[in-house]
Amino acid sequence: MPGRGRALAARDWRGLRDLNARTGLSIIADESLVTCDDLGAMPAGESFIPNFRVSKLGGLIRSADLLRRALAERRKIIVGAQVGETSILARAGLALIAAAGPTSWATRVGTGRCCLRMTWQHQG
Q1: Long-range Cβ contacts of 114-123 (<8 Å, 24+ apart)
Q2: Which residues pair with 104 in a beta bridge?
């Protein structure tokens, strides 16, 4: 099922539910997932997919705690990384991917210099 990020403001769960109902698109909660409360507020079901980034969530321990909760709720998950993250954070993301097992819907860690160059070119 295709998904789209940042369609509405972060944590606009009513608007995101409506968008999902009208389009059938999965909602990838990126900016909407920063705390345990955010995960609790996220609508249940396969269409709402939390995006885990170790740097955004405050480190590996907090990320792992949120991951355990998401897995207990039987959610699909995404493990990602910020463009330009250090190799240490990329490795921490790999640990989350391993912990998620087959529930990982998508992953992206370790962007590399090519993507950084392209990002800088597009912003300039």
Answers
A1: 115/83, 116/83, 116/84, 119/83, 119/84
A2: 77
Query: 3-123 belongs to which CATH class?
Result: alpha beta
- Pairing state of beta strands 48-52 and 77-79? parallel
**Which helix (H) or strand (E) is 67 found in, with range?**
helix 60-72
Domain residue extents for the chain: 3-123
Tell me: the pLDDT tens digits for 10-67? Answer: 899 999 999 999 999 899 898 899 999 999 999 998 899 999 999 899 999 999 999 9
The answer for 42, left when phi > 0, alpha when psi is -120 to 50, beta otherwise, is beta
What is the rounded (10 degree) CA torsion for 33, 35, 38, 40?
120
What does pTM read for this prediction? 0.76
Q: What angle do CA 101, 103, 105 make, to 5 degrees?
A: 115
What does the CA dihedral 29, 8, 109, 92 come to, rounded to 10 degrees? -50
- CA 77 from centre of chain: 7
Overall size of the chain counted in residues? 124
